[in-house]
Design a protein that fits this description.
The complex is a heterodimer of chains A (382) and B (487).
Chain A (H helix, E strand, L loop, with lengths): L1 E4 L7 H19 L1 H5 L2 H4 L6 E6 L16 E4 L9 E4 L20 E6 H9 L20 E7 L9 H14 L15 E6 L6 E9 L6 H21 L4 E7 L3 E4 L1 H6 L9 H14 L5 E9 L8 H14 L3 E6 L10 H5 L7 E6 L5 H9 L11
Helix pairs in contact in A: 6-11, 8-9
Chain B lengths: L2 H20 L7 E6 L1 H10 L8 H15 L7 E4 L4 E6 L4 H20 L10 H19 L1 H13 L6 H5 L5 H9 L12 H21 L15 H8 L5 H22 L1 H21 L5 H14 L9 H17 L3 H7 L6 H11 L2 H8 L2 H7 L1 E7 L2 E6 L2 H12 L7 E8 L4 E6 L8 H15 L3 E7 L2 E7 L4 E5 L3
Parallel strand pairs in B: 1-3, 7-8
Antiparallel strand pairs in B: 2-3, 4-5, 6-7, 8-9, 9-10
Helix pairs in contact in B: 1-4, 1-12, 2-3, 4-12, 5-6, 5-11, 6-11, 6-20, 10-11, 12-13, 12-14, 14-16, 17-19
Classes of the chains: A alpha/beta (382), B alpha+beta (487).
Chain lengths: 382, 487
């Protein structure tokens, strides 16, 4: 019989294997970005710091009984009766899930990850395309960085290691190489400079169709796209302006809150949005000073006699902008020939980028198509 | 823990040991080690200190730690079945908690030493596990970390498909196992007057073999000649694609799993036995004034929390504890009927529970001693998923008992055998699930088959029953398929 106690502070096995597990989660997430980007629980996670991400590859598969078909044993408080409900399946606030029927019985492993980490994975190689140097340069990217060592400075920034070294050097010069009798002349301070990387100004004009023809699915897709776009811009650029425009037959500039949460209805006249965008550019964002990125998401159902007008307006916008992104959302793969997309097929300018989304999984490829780093291969179609 | 406290803990553990011995317990000498929480959670998630590295262990560790950090679960103790036994106590637990845990540990180490199902476990498992970990680390060095990791992913997916009966009979060694699947004739048995009975067995077997040969005339003999439960052993011996290091990794996983089997087979008994004795040892210490009144109250609170029942699972501590107490009571005070019919004499309770702890495992323990009165007193039930709800479906005591016993058969895993190692004469592997009323999770089964393919290298099949139909799941390296078989 003996009792002992040792120092375990250097024992790291658990942490090391945990790291490997984390790494595997990151790999799995990267592989599943297409699904994750359109995951409702993340889009609706409003401001939460960590989100739960469903991934498939981290299950430990084995031959096991179907838990839903098996009976289990439990213990009551003495009054239990046949028919008593003892637990309910957690019904996460998923609402209607478009894909629910697709993989019956598929078990997802849910990993927890911080929103920041997730954004980093998604935006790893995305950027604002065709960014140009403009006259007025004010994009401050990086924050404070310590760059220099000086003899004077605030005590909070004392560089202890260097101070001790200086002290020892001085003592060594006197033949006694050790740390003692610290004097003012030994003190060293870290000094920083704000490193401002000037970049071009940029404004993104996010336009979204909120007319009656936009169904749940279409609205959801448009919002998920914009959700990530806004996140992307805010993560990567400190100073991008975003203008939100919702339209049906009329267009109006709205707040971010309204843009993401307010539903509208009515007919569609897309030109109204483009006109408003042009007006806003004219009033507030001079193309000489600003990189301008208009994006528009719609189901493509427009008043037929408005299409020509739209093409003209898009061409005007392209003149002023770095790129113009158009996303058409169509549930299922049918394509009606009368949509905006077919009208836009006449536009040949390289600055015009269009995507069609007919499945949740295509949101991520759309992001990549609009924001892929130039020179990167753009994944074709989906 | 401060030195003075450590000294006091030593004294108390010494008393607890003496009292345990006075009660008739016969534990292995036990070494106690105080460790910080992180180490405790690491050992618990690896099941043994020093075990090989793998991300699944990291995942378990992360989960344990989260539960702990969130205050949802707390491990008091971890004890390893070795001689001498090693018990780990939580550094930050106070003197009373650790005394209580030590008393509990003596119940476990007595059980390890005396229960018949543990007789063949290696009592030097910590060293073996460390050596195994070193070998695996060496393979990682030689063949690359990822290669070894992926291989382990496959092996661990089928790690429970071993035959613990081979192990119990001591036929785990290379030759014994070989004999077993070649036929048992050559094994020597002590001679008794009933030996002629074996001849019947042998004749029947020869007759069957003869018929089999007749039926399969002109075709190669069946391989293996009878179904084998030990999938891992079968893979080690007969997989067409594995390299020596890979066979060794399978052997490591198999050996470690077999070591854990008795613990899985006796969870309820082992925890019940330890709980019974921790409560008696602590009560005795209180009676002798070794712990204060205030501490006794605190102990009662801890005891109640460890033994608290759950609506959705069985608490093995509580269930085992109640059954042991009940056995002791029934053998101390047998009814007149029991005295007359079974010749049971009063006052034999203590002797009886020691006998049970020696000879039973959970399946026989529950089958024999979970009585109608206990099922009703404990309000046990079976529940099932109906739609989105989990609903109580059974309260009849026999059905509840049988349901619990069934869920423990093959320690809760589906029973799968290797039926054919040369299926379609094409060296394909044919596994069969011996269906006993519970259907498999098909998604999981499909994915697991893909792992088995990694280990066999040729098409693999699994026969099972789903919704009352015989079906065959297959994976040929590229595609999974499912076919319905004739009845």
């Amino acid at each position: 019989m003996s009792v002992s106690q040792h120092d375990w502070s250097l024992h790291r096995k658990g942490q090391i294997d945990q790291e490997r597990h984390k790494e595997k989660i990151r790999e799995a997430i990267k592989k599943n970005l297409q699904e994750i980007v359109s995951e409702e629980s993340i889009i609706l996670s409003d401001g939460k710091k960590t989100v739960r991400v469903p991934i498939r590859s981290l299950e430990e598969y084995r031959f096991r009984y179907d838990p839903g078909r098996q009976s289990h044993a439990g213990q009551g408080d003495g009054k239990s009766r046949v028919g008593d409900v003892i637990a309910q399946e957690p019904r996460a606030g998923r609402g209607k899930k478009g894909e629910a029927g697709k993989d019956p019985g598929y078990d997802y492993y849910e990993a927890e990850i911080s929103m920041e980490e997730l954004s980093e994975l998604i935006f790893e190689d995305l950027e604002l395309p065709n960014l140009e140097q403009k006259r007025q340069q004010e994009l401050q990217t990086d924050a404070v960085r310590f760059t220099d060592i000086r003899k004077h400075g605030p005590l909070t920034n004392l560089d202890k290691k260097r101070t001790i070294l200086e002290n020892m050097k001085r003592n060594a010069a006197k033949g006694e190489p050790r740390f003692k009798d610290i004097k003012n002349e030994d003190l060293r301070f870290k000094v920083w400079e704000p490193t401002i990387r000037y970049e071009s100004n940029a404004v993104v004009i996010a336009m979204m169709d909120v007319s009656g023809s936009m169904g749940e699915f279409e609205k959801y897709i448009a919002r998920s796209f914009y959700f990530w776009m806004v996140r992307f811009l805010r993560t990567k650029y400190n100073n991008v302006h975003i203008v939100f425009i919702s339209h049906h037959t009329e267009a109006k500039e709205v707040t971010e809150e309204e843009f993401f949460h307010k539903g509208e209805s009515g007919g569609t006249q897309v030109s109204s949005a483009y006109e408003l965008a042009l007006q806003i550019i004219k009033e507030r964002f001079n193309p000489h000073d600003w990189n301008i990125y208009p994006f528009h998401f719609s189901d493509g159902d427009n008043l037929p006699w408005d299409n020509d007008r739209c093409v003209q307006l898009v061409q005007q916008l392209i003149e002023l902008c770095n790129i113009f992104g158009y996303g058409e959302i169509r549930e299922g793969h049918y394509r009606s020939p009368s949509t905006l997309m077919s009208a836009y097929s006449r536009i040949t300018d390289k600055k015009f980028v269009a995507v069609t989304i007919s499945d949740k999984k295509e949101v991520y490829p759309a992001l990549r198509k609009f924001f892929a780093r130039r020179g990167d291969a753009v994944p074709a179609g989906r | 823990m401060a030195d003075s406290d450590l000294e006091r803990l030593r004294d108390r553990i010494g008393y607890a040991w003496e009292i345990a011995r006075e009660f008739g317990l016969d534990p292995f000498p036990t070494h106690f080690e105080l460790v910080p929480a992180t180490i405790m959670y690491e050992f618990a998630s690896y099941s043994l200190p020093g075990r090989f590295s793998h991300w699944t262990h990291g995942k378990a560790y992360y989960r344990q730690k989260m539960l702990y950090d969130l205050g949802l679960s707390k491990i008091y103790e971890m004890v390893v079945n070795t001689n001498p036994s090693y018990a780990f106590l939580m550094e930050m637990n106070d003197l009373l908690q650790n005394t209580f845990v030590a008393a509990h540990v003596f119940g476990h180490t007595d059980f390890f030493k005396n229960n018949v199902y543990f007789q063949h476990t290696s009592r030097r498992m910590i060293e073996r596990a460390s050596l195994n970990a070193e070998r695996i680390a060496k393979y990682e060095f030689d063949h690359g970390k990822l290669e070894v990791e992926h291989f382990l992913d496959s092996v661990l997916s089928v790690q429970e498909h071993v035959d613990y009966h081979l192990f119990l009979k001591g036929e785990d060694d290379e030759e014994g196992g070989e004999q077993l699947w070649r036929g048992e004739e050559s094994r020597t048995r002590p001679s008794t007057e009933y030996d002629d009975l074996w001849a019947l067995d042998r004749e029947a077997k020869e007759r069957r073999a003869e018929e089999e040969r007749e039926r399969r005339r002109g075709r190669p003999p069946k391989f293996p000649d009878k179904p084998q439960k030990d999938l891992l052993l079968f893979l080690i011996r007969h997989s067409p694609i594995l390299e020596p290091w890979q066979r060794d990794v399978i052997e490591i996983v198999r050996q470690e799993f077999l070591y854990f089997v008795p613990q899985m087979q006796t969870k309820v008994m082992n925890e019940g036995w330890a709980s019974l004795w921790h409560s008696r040892i602590m009560r005795e210490m209180a009676d002798r004034g070794m712990i204060s009144d205030a501490e006794t109250v605190e102990f009662a609170r801890m005891h109640a929390s460890v033994l608290s029942p759950s609506r959705t699972s069985l608490n093995p501590y509580f269930l085992g504890y109640k059954i042991f107490e009940d056995i002791e009571r029934r053998w101390d005070h047998p009814t007149r009927e029991e005295q007359e019919r079974l010749g049971r004499k009063p006052g034999m309770g203590r002797q009886k529970i020691f006998e049970v702890r020696e000879l039973d495992n959970d399946v026989s323990f529950l089958r024999n001693y979970l009585t109608k009165e206990l099922v009703e007193e404990l309000d046990l039930y079976l529940y099932k998923k109906e739609g989105d709800e989990w609903v109580i479906v059974e309260k009849n005591w026999e059905k509840v008992r049988d349901g619990i016993v069934t869920s423990m058969t093959n320690f809760g895993f589906p029973y799968i055998v290797v039926d054919d190692g040369d299926y379609r004469g094409n060296r394909e592997l044919y596994l069969r699930h011996l269906h006993e009323g519970q259907d498999l999770d098909l998604v999981y089964a499909e994915r697991t088959l893909q792992y088995v393919y990694q280990l066999w290298g040729r098409p693999v099949h699994l026969e099972t029953v789903y919704d009352g139909k015989r079906i065959l799941l297959s994976y040929d390296g590229e595609r999974s398929s499912k076919t319905t078989l004739e009845r």
